[in-house]
Write a structure and sequence with these properties.
Layout: H1 2-19, E1 30-31, H2 46-51, E2 60-62, E3 65-72, E4 93-97, E5 110-112, E6 133-141, E7 150-155, E8 158-159, E9 161-166, E10 169-175, E11 181-184, E12 193-201, E13 214-216, E14 219-220, E15 224-229, E16 232-244, E17 249-260, E18 275-277, E19 283-286, H3 300-312, E20 317-319, H4 327-336, E21 339-343, H5 365-379, E22 385-389, H6 398-410, E23 416-417, H7 438-448, E24 462-465, E25 477-481, E26 484-487, E27 498-501, E28 509-512
Parallel strand pairs: 20-21, 21-22, 22-23
Antiparallel strand pairs: 1-10, 2-15, 3-4, 3-6, 5-13, 6-12, 7-11, 7-15, 8-14, 9-10, 9-12, 16-17, 18-19, 24-27, 25-26, 25-28
Helix pairs in contact: 3-4, 5-6
């Protein structure tokens, strides 16, 4: 009898496992996607490359525009076979891409702060409510001039989970709504018309890591395009500019990855030739997204408007709370001169910070780490980024400790911050939110009592000063010299938070404390 019970238990377990949906499985967030990398589109000549306008490259083709669309209020009501090439879509609507379908009149936009909109009593990774689905179709043709090249399909952001088919064949699955999803697609393509089918789910287990204080809306939120590359091409690169010779000179380190897509003709001893140009094109050496009318779809013109307003009010730093922004934002910050704290798309506020925190549940480690990695790999070469942030309001634990270690192993040039780590080791910056008036006074007393060990030379002090709320009046002055640390006795410094760590080399630091205001632009939606 005991053997029968064991057998039945195994059968039931196997059946339950088989029935588990990808969008209710924290271990499934990436099927057949390309590894994360910097945004790369080839140019046909150096002059065009120097302009940096990859949309003008002949190897780029935008798929933005009007797509066929079918909204279903629940996943069980979705058109199951819509991706098949003979499926009848007569009567389907059209929807602009990019867009949020709630803004276009399908379903209801929801604004909540610390709760999950799909469950008052969450049980991750389950979604225990109706799950609306948007089914998208688009016909496109690949330029004949791309023959012999490999072709990639790029989605800048999809909210919140999606399956992809091309010409009736399943290509893959994605979660993680604020970083790109890419697929290598030549084997799915045919001459002439190709049909792309995308099935987007409003709710997924990925949203357990996206409990931010903003509008919960859905759809294809950023640009969609295809681009072509040679079979042998640069797949990724990492540029690091460092100071040497007692900070008098600079050095440039470039790590380049070259990929060969034709596995039958592997080549070795490849030579990468590089040229570096200054902002005006001279050869140096030879070797929060929200708009009231468009939801989470943000355009270049609105970004420039924001930057102009920031500059007029002497704002010089932006934290991308609480997820990586559209890639264009970083290009503009590079150009116009804004420091950026780049923040991963991680917030599980609805699970609290205690035992139920997903920061402590190791079954969520891969999903959580993937979001930080994809942010880093996409954005690592932007000089505007001065700090990495691991997210917001997700508790602290093993998963963030591992994330901290990964980042330190891959980028030694920037500090990282995570507010919920407090003064634990897995943050380089102590940045508590909404500190009281007494907070800096307590810090002053505490740091006056610090006796730095003599073995810590002043050139080994890394002083990272950052706050998470608006500095109400004039900046407080901070002086650091050798073993001495002092905050000037000024109530005007009342919102400063700081920490000292012997991590990076910095001879001394003189200046003031900055801050970030929550939030720069209020979140409103007009026309719904």
């Amino acid at each position: 009898m005991r053997q029968i019970y064991i057998f039945l238990f195994l059968v039931v377990s196997i059946c339950l496992t088989a029935q588990q949906k990808d969008w209710e499985n924290q271990k499934i967030f990436d099927i057949n996607k390309e590894k994360p990398h910097v945004n790369i589109v080839n140019y046909e000549d150096v002059d065009l490359a120097k302009l940096g306008e990859f949309q003008e490259s002949e190897y780029y083709l935008s798929l933005n525009g009007r797509w066929k669309f079918k909204y279903s209020s629940d996943d069980e009501l979705r058109p199951m076979d819509f991706y098949k090439t003979d499926f009848d879509i007569s009567g389907w609507d059209e929807i602009p891409v990019p867009s949020n379908w709630e803004i276009e009149g399908y379903g209801t936009p929801i604004y909540v702060n610390t709760d999950y909109p799909f469950d008052k009593h969450p049980q991750p990774p389950l979604i225990r409510t109706n799950n609306p689905v948007g089914s998208y179709l688009l016909d496109f043709e690949v330029p004949d001039s791309w023959d012999g090249k490999t072709v990639f399909l790029h989605f800048g952001a999809i909210k919140s989970a999606a399956y992809l088919w091309i010409n009736g064949e399943k290509v893959g699955y994605t979660q993680g709504s604020k970083t790109p999803s890419e697929w290598d697609i030549p084997k799915y393509l045919v001459k002439g018309k190709n049909t792309l089918a995308l099935e987007v789910y409003r709710w997924s287990d990925g949203l357990y890591l996206e409990c931010q204080d903003f509008w919960r809306i859905s759809g294809i939120e950023r640009d969609v395009f295809i681009y072509a590359k040679n079979k042998i091409s640069i797949s990724d690169f990492f540029v690091q500019s460092l100071l040497i010779n007692d900070y008098k000179d600079g050095s440039l380190k470039v790590d380049v990855k070259v990929e060969e897509k034709d596995i039958h003709k592997k080549k070795t001893n490849l030579l990468v030739h590089a040229q570096v140009y200054d902002p005006v094109g001279n050869n140096v050496f030879d070797k929060k997204d929200n708009i009231e009318f468009t939801g989470h779809v943000v355009y270049k013109e609105s970004m420039i408007k924001d930057i102009t307003l920031m500059k007029k009010h002497n704002i010089n730093t932006v934290r991308t709370c609480h997820y990586p922004d559209d890639p264009m934002w970083y290009e503009l910050c590079n150009k116009y001169g804004l420091y950026v704290i780049d923040e991963a798309n991680i917030e599980s506020h609805g699970m609290g910070y205690g035992k139920k925190s997903l920061a402590k549940d190791t079954s969520w480690l891969e999903a959580l780490l993937d979001r930080t990695i994809r942010m880093f790999e996409r954005d690592k070469n932007h000089p505007c980024i001065v700090t990495w942030s691991f997210g917001n309001e997700a508790g602290n634990g093993y998963n963030f400790e591992q994330t901290y270690q990964w980042m330190k192993d891959h980028d030694s040039t920037r500090p990282v911050q995570y507010e919920r780590a407090g003064q634990e080791y897995n943050t380089d910056i102590y940045c508590p939110m909404y500190a009281s008036l007494e907070h800096p006074e307590n810090y002053e007393v505490a740091y006056e009592q610090i006796n730095f060990p003599s073995m810590v030379e002043k050139t080994e002090l890394d002083v990272s000063v950052l706050s998470d709320v608006l500095l109400k009046e004039n900046k407080g002055e901070i002086n650091i010299s050798g073993e001495l640390f002092n905050i000037q006795n000024s109530i005007q410094a009342k919102y400063i938070k700081l920490i000292i760590k012997p991590l990076l080399q910095c001879p001394s630091w003189h200046g003031g404390a900055g801050s970030n205001a929550w939030l720069f632009l209020d979140e409103i939606t007009i026309g719904y």
